[in-house]
Fold each of these.
Amino acid sequence: MDSLEAQSAGLAAAEVSSVELVDAALARIEAADATLNAVVGVRGDAARAEAAAADARRSAGDRRSPLDGVPLLLKDNMVQQGEPTTCSSRILEGFVSPYDSTVVTRLREAGAIVLGRSNMDEFAMGSSTEHSVHGPAHNPWDTGRSCGGSSGGSAAAVSSGMLPFALGSDTGGSIRQPASFCGVTGLKPTYGRVSRFGLVAFASSLDQIGPIARTARECAWILDAIAGHDAKDSTSIPEPAPRVSDALDGDVSGLTIGMPREYFEEDGADPEVVSCVRAAISELERGGAKLIEVDLPHTPFVVSTYYLVATAEASSNLARYDGARYGRRAEGVSDVDEMYRRSRSEGFGDEVKRRILLGTYVLSAGYFDAYYRKAQQVRTLVRADFERAFAQCDVIAGPTYPEVAFELGSKQDDPINMYLSDVYTVSANLAGLPAISIPCGLVRDLPVGLQLQGRAMDEATLLRVADGFQGRTDHHDQRPPGHLGQAAR
Amino acid sequence: MSVDPMERYEAVIGLEVHTHLKTRSKLFSPAPVRYGDEPNHNVHPIDLGMPGVLPVLNEKVVGLAIRLGLATHSRVNQRSVFSRKNYFYPDLPKGYQISQYDEPIVSKGWIEIEVPTDSGQPAAGEKKRGETPKERRRIGITRAHLEEDAGKSIHDAAVAGADDTHIDLNRAGVPLLEIVSEPEMRSPEEASAYLRALRSILRYIDVSDADMEKGQFRCDANISLRRRGESRLGTRTEIKNLNSFASVEGAIKAEIVRQAEILDDGGEILQATMAYDPQRGRTRILRLKENADDYRYFDDPDLIPLIIQDEEIEAVRADMPELPDEKRVRFQDEYGLSAYDVGVLISSRPLAEFFEQTATACGSAKSAVNWITRDLMKELNERGVDVGELAITPEMLGALIRLVDEGRLTARSARDLFPELAEQGGDPEAIMRVRGLEAVSDPGVIDGSVEEVVGANAKAVESVRAGDDKALNFLMGQVMKATQGKADPTDVRRRLVERIRG
Amino acid sequence: MQRITRQDVERTADLARLSLTEAEIVALTRDLDRILEHADQLKDLDTESTVPTAHAIVLPTPQRADEPVPGMDVESALANAPLREGSAFVVPKVIEGEES
């Protein structure tokens, strides 16, 4: 009983209590996390008390949502009042949030129980969950490999059955890529669909919160709980989010699936991964969908564009970590400038420093037009690519990542190569589109992700296709081998 | 060098004014705007730059900025953009200030100032104060943009100790308009006149209280000198944080002297940020702008560009209060007042409104202006308060004036009564009755007193007959004393003269 | 051609208030140069008449009513302060000339 669907049904039928689910989750974390390092903090007593309250409420007939009474993990970059948030950074050592993020408020309204916080790359910068003050997280399918990132802890926790679902954040693929590596389903909603209030910003125009669970249907339930306009976020879509879970009818017939030429000609991609994804898309065709080729001609430029935009915004977003009002201040500083320099140099890790420097540089006098403004202009071209493609098709399909989970440490010395692998995921962030990664098979015993990208605001069609695929296949039911998978059963 | 540097050089002065907008909550956070509280009592996580917070624009500021735009004959831009100005300072919680950069909300306007004719030119001989001929001049407004204020750093060793700085973020996020002038002022006096005119407009249109003591109206001045006849601009310096009219004038004067001395010695002006020390009356270099500030402005991704529809501008226009210049013209035309009187009356909107309401209440603009420019202004100046802070209302003053104009109260009694009325308010007629101040107008009573005084002062009467007006004044004083000052002095004088000189 | 020099890295680190070790400067100069070399491919694209995208969505400007809510509880506001005195945050002294 490790899936959200199973736990939700069990609670509805009173076969299990929320307190039991919380205790079971704590036990599984205890058993598996010494190996995986996916969880960086649990709130056992508070969660148990909330679970008991949820049990009492539901037995009185007040069931708020399919998530009511179900425990989850938050990525450690979403704040909860009275709880620490570290963003896996030394600079936020000791920080306890004085306020709730909007997603925490909405989850509470839905009755879900925040059990703890998941490991991540520092300030969500990375694709491996190796850049963490808490140490690297491991992939349940092969603990010598990365669980992806930056929402790696969330994906590994769901994959190993610690918790039925978790929230992640996705700035350039940080939900989808770890979902792909860990064999679970991860959804990045349309930009503005889920409030960013209380999400520690990496790159504000790209960041979006989304769910990681086993299935698209579960992701739809979670999205229904957390989506919708929030007056505290000026970039929130100012209309009620439609209930996407109502759109899932298992039927993909009549839909047109676009396959971008550029995604299947990528030189650096693992051929086995590409053929695994092709096979998955054929399954959609067997389900009645129509496949066509589409063009996304600016694909070769998206990674550069993304890194210029994201790091520029990040350099500004991370200026507030200065040791003055919260977080870690370097010891023995005698003037304020020294406080800034030493607190920041000691508090940020290498990858964060690299990105702050790049972002500062591209915004600085003399380089702004050549790099930052240029990237914003190319961003316009990337958006236009998708508009043209979506005039021909309903959903765009391709690989989530060019390879399966890589070995821990294997990319540490080659950041640029690591960036280039984000080629399939960053476009959805640049264009603000919804995108999902769903398990579509194994290559060399490791999960492969099929990525579907949809029209802005149209999570419904995206999830309908993903759900249709999962109705015809059982890749999402596969579990990691050995005790990590066993523990999950 | 003792000779006035303004004889050799022309000063080119531009001002940047930061004025707090009159809102109840902050620009991007719902925390209250309050002054004088203990540190960090009016903050929201947004003002602390907490991780994860996001800004949401206060709608009130948009209307206020449009007002300022209309009042300064400026263009209100249909699209304006919030940008981040990135720099580190401990009272800047996010490490950037949300401001407007290349697309401000207001641009290209002007205001009028009143300056002595030929101001900015070398003085041609001494002129007596008060006789300087004045002219009205336009000063261009380059732009006005919205931005958030920073908090306060308290460096004072008495508070923070020698090794520390205290940070108070109550002010962080308070909405500001930065109003940038064209470099069109030529003297410290013009700069001061511009600031006064601008502050008056801001108060008239209720955009800002612009209280300098509360830091609601602050000014940076840009100054360069060039030899007279030269058209090329010199290198300019910027004096920061001038918080009173006196310091603006003093700082500009001091900076002109400093720059002139350097130029006289064949030196070069360095582009620098200056501070003004009012005690010593000198400016000093705070830092050089050699390595130009690199603020890395870019559009704030957390805020959508501000789009203002024409209807919104028209709605604000329809709701605009009358501006000082419009009032000036109307007061002269409608009430036939002198330029001096109008100048006093329109110096603040509450005072101008007080005047108009008083004139209506008493039916005489002439009487109202006399009482206001003389007695009311005296009270305001002595107490150092604004008209709204006194208990007296236009209705009360109007009633008082009517009593005098109807001859029921002597001007003298009215004037004696005025301070009390100003402070405590009340019905002038009732007070007059309670105090028994009602003017004595019964001829029998006055003539009786006249008879008495004439009978008791034979010598003085003699002198009056001989044409001695001093003696007449003495007798008048006796009659006024006998009637407890409640008789009309003109009437008393007439009756005395009739009685003595027949 | 080297796109970024060690001086550029040092100047940029100064703007970002980061102190770098010698090894970091060398490594970052190399990394940033490679990243910018790759980014130079964008110069091949004609964007002469392309409007930049700063936001992923187009919306009317969100605004909130001018309704104040009481400030945070002061203890909560200062709970994370590395150093405080009374209700003020305390930082080491500001050396003159840094003021902006």
Amino acid sequence: MASANTDQRVVAPGPSATAARIPKQRTRKRRRHKHNRAAYAFLAPWLIGLFGLTLFPMAYSLYLSFTNYGLLSAPKWIGLENFRLLFQDPNFWQSVRVTFEYVVFSVPLKLGAALAVAVLLNKKIKGLGFYRSAFYLPSLLGASVAVAVMWQQVFSQQGLLNEFLGVFGIHGQDWIGQPSTALWTLILLAGWQFGTPMLIFLAGLKQLPKDVYEAASLDGSGPLRTFFTITLPLLSPMIFFNLVLETINAFQTFTPAYVVSNGLGGPVGSTLLYTLYLYQKGFGSLQMGYASAMAWLLFLVIGLFTALYFATARKWVTYGD
Amino acid sequence: MSELSRRGFFGLGAGAAALAMAGCSDFTASTSSSGASSGSSGGSLVFRWWGGTSRNEAYQSALKVFTKKTGIKVTAQYSGYNGYFDKLNTEFAGGTPPDVFQMDTALTSTYAAKGVLTDLSTYIPGTIQLSTLFPALRGAGVVKGVNYGVASGSGYAPVLYNETVLNKLKIALPENSWTWDDFSTITNEVAKAWGSGKYGANDASGDDSGALQPWLRQRGKDLYTSSGELGFDATDLGDWWNYWAGLRKTGACVPADLVANYGNADSTNPFVAGSAALTTGWGLAQIAPLMTATLGEIIVPRGANGKTGQALNGGVLLVIPTKSSNPTGAAKLIDFFLTDKDAIKIMGTQRGLPPSSLAETELLPTLSASAKLDVTYGDYVNQQVAADALADAPSAPPGYGDVKTALGNVSSAVAFGKQSVSAGVSSFFSQAKTILAQAAA
């Protein structure tokens, strides 16, 4: 996507410049310092936020993860005890299982839906702006409590879904009350909120060079083949970007599980997402040290996944130049 | 929310919606009236509670009277029960708890162990007059000999039954002498006569204070020992869960996916929805307004030895954090709710049955029919408990809340068949022991 060559090579200074070089550099340096000061002043709000609200709390939670901290009394250093207890905690492993299941199914579902709708919206159809907004709407409502409450209504025993099934004489069950289906309602909710990756895909699709498609159609390539051999490879940087972001998001999902299960992660721990259990431990059971240890494990796992994606990216992400 | 039974009984009531969203929606309203008659400012207070709509309204009108009488401005903060203690914990950690707040009796020891509650002995009897408080309730806020809180109501969790349905099905109403065998017979009859999708009773296999505790006490056990360990063993819990597994098999109690709805005071509760005819763990005054059917109230089934096993609980307590900025004002507020006739009338039975002789004489003439039935029932159980001649139930140890959650989770897993009764029992005991050991450390 590089435009015409407009670079201007910097011309090396002639010999006459060397004499005045030293004092000039000094003033320039001083001026640069002044410039920097102004820049830092403008950056200050962000820097304060970064250090005060992100880095310091992170460092402090790392410290807390090695302590017994009941929130109401001073933290007590206990070394790796929290981690030892964690690995023996059946609820911890339950939350890990549930979270992996959630991530593994919700991310591909969401990205698939996003890509499919983006391709549809890339056609020249009437009222495109309306459709785009309509499809984006669920994501605007995103992590909101209202949507999760609505979800609860849709999938409950007397919910919308069962009303609908009833029309065909199918006797539905309480989808949220059953351990085998409760998590799937959350996965479906995640899939439905595909708006953000959809917009990114759409922006990517609009950028794809037309001439490649023209050449393909001249060579007699059908729409399916064009999609798999041209669109997908050209779009791979966007897919990569969305995959990384959505995986991180999925690992950190909290609100829908909290609302749908009334904060309990039930039935039978089937919606006990990792962050929900972390929250229960930290704020419900007053085990903030334990919760901090959990938070750091999650941080490491997310880091690991991201690293893995980047390591494999070379094999399947193509940058079109 | 099955762990809410005891609180539910005391009028937590009012809407799972309020409960479900409590974490994100709590209300702060200043009910202070600046035109206090005394003119001199008595300082100010932040007072926090949880409750349903009717309790919130009662508290707010009572606070207006308090401000008028004492000149102390009160900032009222309230929410549902869900998330209430999470928020409180965060504020305790930040060193800015409210000046006085409503406490769950069973959690008092957890907070007392952290040393964040004020010993009220300096205010008794100077500011807080306990003389009319029923003696049985004076120990409700006491942990290891120190009084941290004052009870606001009392009660015993009954069994409620849907009289309309039982009459329609021509099934005899339960009688005061009934046992757990009778409970099984009646619920089975109901299930058989009522048809598909209808059940005899709510599943109380995870209801610790409304059902399991009386059942254990009938066997001479209890939820906890006085030293804070579990007061029952694997055989007890196994028998309990097998009893409910039997009811579940025949449809005498609701299927597993409805177990959790037992704690909701709304139409998702099978009893309220009219798909179960009996329930434990709820007070009549909280459920009756939600239903059109005629409801009856009866003592929890007795043991084979005729004992009721019921244990009196103190409803909600009012406590003062050690970091309260106005402990004297807070103590005055506690006394106000206990001894002021206006306050007693305004609060009614919103926080349980009248806790003092004063409240009883003030309230009895004005109570609603269902509240009156609650009081009569309370009087009856009082006599029966005396006849039991059992020791008082030891107060719940630190970690109580988590053990209760574990009990709810495992009984649900057993109900779903995810775990056998014996596997569930060993899972519960290992979890509970870890929790109690950690909380005591």
Amino acid sequence: MKDAMPAVCIDRADFDSVIKALAGDGYNVVGPVLREGAIIYDEISGVSDLPEGWGDEQEAGTYRTVKRNDKALFGHNSGQQAWKKFLYPSRERLWSAQGDNAEFKIEPNAETPPKYAFVGVHACDLRAIEIQDIVFMNPETADPRYGKRREGAFIVAVNCAQSAKTCFCAAMGTGPRAESGFDLSLTEIIEANAHYFVATVGSARGETLMQKIKSRPATDADLQAAATRTENAQKQQVRSLDREGVKELLFSSYSDAHWDKIAERCLSCANCTMVCPTCFCSKTEDTTDLSGNHADRWRLWDSCFTVDFSYIHGGSIRKQVASRYRQWMTHKLASWIDQFGTSGCVGCGRCITWCPVGIDITEEAKVFREEKMDPRLRGDDEVVKGTKQ
Amino acid sequence: MSVTKSAHKTAHEAQCACHAAEAPDPLAPEPFRVVEVKQEIEGCNTLIVEPETDEAKKLCMYAPGQFHMIYAFGQGEVPISISGDPAHSNRLVFTIMGVGPVSDALTRLKEGDKVGLRGPFGNHWPVEKAAGRDVLLVAGGLGLAPLRPAIYSILAKRDLFSRVMLLYGTRKAESILFQDQLAEWNKHMEMNVSVTVDTADEHWGGHVGLVTELIKETNFSPSRTIAMICGPEVMMRFSAGALLERGMKANQVYVSMERNMKCAVGLCGRCQYGPYFMCKDGPIFSFDQVEHLYKVREV
Amino acid sequence: MSEKPKLAVWKFSSCDGCQLSLLDCEDELLAITGVITVANFVEASREVLPGPYDVSLVEGSVTTPHEKELIQEIRKESAILISIGACATAGGIQALKNFADVKDYVSAVYAHPEYIKTLATATAISEHVKVDYELRGCPINKEQLLEVVIALLQKRRPNIPLYSVCIECKRRGTSCVMVKGTPCMGPVTQAGCNALCPAHNRGCYGCFGPMEMPNGRSLGNWMIDKKMAEPKDLVRMFRTFNADAPAFKEAGNSYEK
């Protein structure tokens, strides 16, 4: 937006009106809710649905919700779920067919996609949505299903005021502050006698919404308070991933013995890919009813960790777990750059937290880097090659 | 590469510029009718299909080496290379071996049955690049089928090329595809056809051994040849190796790869091969693009 | 189809739970009988039609000398043989006897052990005859059963996943119980139940047996490290309904020392 609306402040007491206004505009409003000891994303009808006063503690393979000593509405970090569950559902009918071998007709899935408003999108996840946009909305091969859902979505970003131990968005250059790509962005400020949000409008839609919301202009002190919050979040990050040359590093590590070491721990359970906000790989399933005259084609989330994923007649290409972990990590951090002009990792840390055995992509990346730095461990015969030619 | 064009588009642009509602669905097949079924060898049929609608007609324009996704009702979709003559723009020809439930279903289709098609997808054989040079076509088993459109194209403009040679290896004599055509091509000296089989019975009078042996025996000038190889990956690896040994450069040698594929438009992620998507960057690669990956297990 | 294919359901050593999944199909069952002749299904009807059968569903493990012979007969009479459930695919809970001396069990359980004729082991159907398809679970999932029957009728590939429970669990949006501190067999267990237990905030029990290439040792070692389980707990976790499935057997044995 060229003539950006100056930042405003919304009092905590008025925040419910943001959710209500979005619902009033016909949006299916989704945001963080506390359920079964985890913060997940689900429909919300008002501020009372938000996980007030709840935060989380995360480490590799560990997640616990914890009570905060304040009443923050957005005092949590990335949870297991990403927004892709709405934009790219885990199971979706692509189309149906009616008839038989001799004569059949393809019928598109006529379901109207819901119009979503996402409340509480962290900067890392905003970048993740942009990355999936590149995958699914490439003009020549755009998936209209994704496009329709994405086109309608209203995004309320929330700048993080804290980080989990598994966060590394700062290292990936995606956060903790959302710079663009939102309709409205918020920083939650909690002080001794005040609880409010510094709000920045990012689109015409956002501006229209804000006209319905009670607010006051933000002062320099408010802006400073907001900036301090995200700076603190950044300072709390204990993990990092050195992006410099990581593509070349991994492309030159295809035959590294360390993949086998990882495979000793890797369960090939696919959790990392399921929770990753950018992982987009899918399978299709063709089903028929008992009559045999009605067929459906479904698309489901799939993973490069399954044996079937690389199956061609005669057997799977990636039989070993080491090859599958290599495919995932090399795709995420290296080949993604060639394919989509960006890293596939946003530093949300989900793959670290939700790995049942705590495998940490940042630690594994370090191992490869240290091996290459150490001449005793370096294999000189391997050519750094792999980029598309 | 088409993807990179949009790589730097922001979410905001994507949001506003997208007219997805009217966009065609790259995952929805177009209707085609099977007009002819011919058994080539045991378990392998050639299907000739014709478009049922104007939209479907557009799918019949393709370049040699490209493929379609073919849907058998209720069974699923598989990628199949086109094996017909690109000059015929009103029909498509596919040579299909039943190797799984869907391809089995395709080989069960009869004249008059219907199929769904998407495509054509992928890049094509470097037929233009081969103009003015010797062309060496190396096929293994069913790999002759994806090469046939290139052969048609080359023979249609035979004068543009110097020597044209086909080296073809199969497991046994009964597995040789397009036998009549092979004889025809050879007879008119448009193309030197050499066929070898891995194992022969007493009826086989020809060469016995691997196709790589034919490469060693064939007379061609490495510096002015373009080679196109199609067959099982191990066969392509050894064939490319034999060609390099003869002095060809990796960028003169082309291979056609195969990977698991569900969408053919870069959305399912399954056909990745190193940095490449088989469906968009392939299936055909010059050997210098993939030589380093050929050395790695289970890429 | 000119003549309806004949389906037979056979019971070996088992609790009948898997067969009941077929009765559980209720609505679909009527439709199925419209296209299939049920030739033998004692849970539903006493009528038994003679073979040969197009499809045989076999429930239960081979635990007695009689069963050992019977399964050979059934195989001869069946074009397609599908073993259904943990007993038929891995020996079931009764395969726990494979880890002990069967004589001790028999004398502990029965008042008159002399009447009991039993083999030393309870084994999967596939250890005795060629099996065309296996449906896992304790009990099997009725949707999977329908899927296999429909797919066979229509000669298409049945959509039966071999990957982990976690994939189903994440698809349905359940937050991971394991990472929240509850021991869970999901990461080494084959999908098929739609991640039922985690959805009710419990760890997976491994009813569907080992997934493709499971890494039981890594999961077990992590649980020990994080004090979520002790080795003896892991022995029990791996030795339930699929104790004799090779991958679970190996993992369970490894924690016994």
Amino acid sequence: MEKFKLKRDYYAGGLMILIGVGAAVIGAGYKFGSLARMGPGFMPVMLGIVLAFLGILIAGTTLASSEPDDARFLPANPQWFGWACIIAGPILFIVLGTYAGMIPAVFACVFVCALGDKTATYKSSAILAAGITVFGVLLFHYLLAVPFPLMRGVDL
Amino acid sequence: MISTAITDLYYGFGVALEPHNLMYCFLGVLVGNLVGVLPGMGPVATISILLPLTFGMQPVPAILMLSGVYYGAQYGGAICSILLNLPCHPPHAVTCLDGFPMTKQGKGGTALGITIIAAFIGASFGITEMIFLAPFLVKMALEFGPAEVCSLMLVGLLAGSTLAKGSPLKGIAMTVFGLLVGIVGSDIETGQPRFTFGITELFDGVEIVALALGLFGVAEFLNSINNTETVDMKYAKVGISDMFPSKADLKKAFFPMIRGTILGSLCALIPGTGPTIASFVSYATEKKISKTPERFGHGAIEGVACPEASTHSSVQGDFIPTMSLGIPGDTVMALLLGALIIHGIVPGPQLISQHADIFWGLIASFWIGNILLVVLNVPMIGLWVKMLSIPYRYLYPSAMFFVCIGVYAANNDMFQVGETLFIGILGYILLRLDFHPAPILLGFVLGPRFEENFRRSLLISRGDLTTFIDRPISAFFLLICVVLIGAQIYVWLRKPKIIEEEKAIEAQVPTTPYSELAE
């Protein structure tokens, strides 16, 4: 037997089996009903089973194919810092948007996102963030009147 | 039949030419054209961002604007391919093959000019097709009961997932996953909350804007950060005067345009085969019937005219199943269908009779929009070329801002922003595992209606599953499903020659990290 290679498709199939079984198990908690009178649990259970089955097929067809595919899950040059910046952007938007208002939320979100690029500097990111903030306030606050206070606690 | 079509169309122009509607149509095509040019921005993300902003508008201008973004983006998409050899927009990827060599020979302007002419011819035919075919389809569809609707949706879902790029098995898995995401929320009949994990915000289901922007916005940023090439602007110098093709060029491009148009309109009729497939098929066909196939890939004008005409004809034809049957063929159509539902319009065969203003206004706006685009593109080409040089490091933070505020504005709820982020991370993981996220949206939009009709048809038949085979129309749709699956198994086992050829063309197209999601 050839050395067991971890292929990307095993992960892919495995993930689908996981989601499918999970959906079926949770769905089983709802009333299943009969074919003529389906309960809310019917579709989730059925779809879950189908998805798990597809997962098995995805992993299975990889076994059958002889094509070498030992591509790893992570890309060749993982961008941990870039990813962190992109994920941090919306989180800052939520936190600052809830407690501080639109101006700090937009500025922080764009600034942090922009820092993720490897050629970005603090200065270039700050200029971009400031520009977007001005544009965003004009468009969304004044023109479209989105209900989002500019600064919480300060009457602008 | 022709006379009624003309009266209806006349009425449609009345709707589309109302100053208010005209303005939004113009805005739509302008924004579409712009994002089409920008590398790394696609119509899907743009329509999702604009969608919440249309909530306060009347449905007619909202739909005109959102549709305008879609076909406007197609005009811009070719510029990137021809001048920079960057296939940022999948339907225009194949245009790189001959468009960029033409640019290198100093004929980039001619290529762009031909593209615009091809686009207009293709689009015009697609619109005409819609005028005559959609009412005809509606007549048929009005006979449908829940069983037929159910089987038809199954065809749409299967075709959408198996005919798209990548492994068909994974496509189907994504469709099923999308159907499951569509289940989240309260059950329509019993009110039982499903898959909500006790989170109150999820009782109304997953927000379509959050899903679309997570999958096609956040996931895309995660995928392309520090992963994009610097754009080479060496050849990208085009003036207005370069854009008028010579008589000889026009003559050479005329028949390829017509062939591309017809192929594109045929592709539009098959659910699931959008403009991307149409452009590849027409390029392959054109190369095959050409007397001088060796010129292809070295700047043959036919290689630009044919796929471009077919893309545009297929883009307009795409609207037919969405508007007449309520079955979207691809992601953009799924979003537009979602937009219709949000505006309180039930998609399906009743749409044309109940909302004649939307249907005929939309068709009329297609003509107006396409004329606007031709007029826009010729004098503004210099500006578009300048836009090409905007680096990605400025684009994605700005886009992230639009994503956050767009999702927030949908419900004035910060929870949705978190939901988008979560879906985005999940989408990136799926992308790394070679899953294409487009079918998720299709499954999500059709899911609730599929379940409703499935339940209803079995209620009528008292739990007898044979109802789907006993009714001839439904049986016919199921037969198509079987053929679709059979064809996939055949391809997988035998690998026929046509597929190999198409693969070969696909392999020639330069790859860019942008193109994976921009559709």
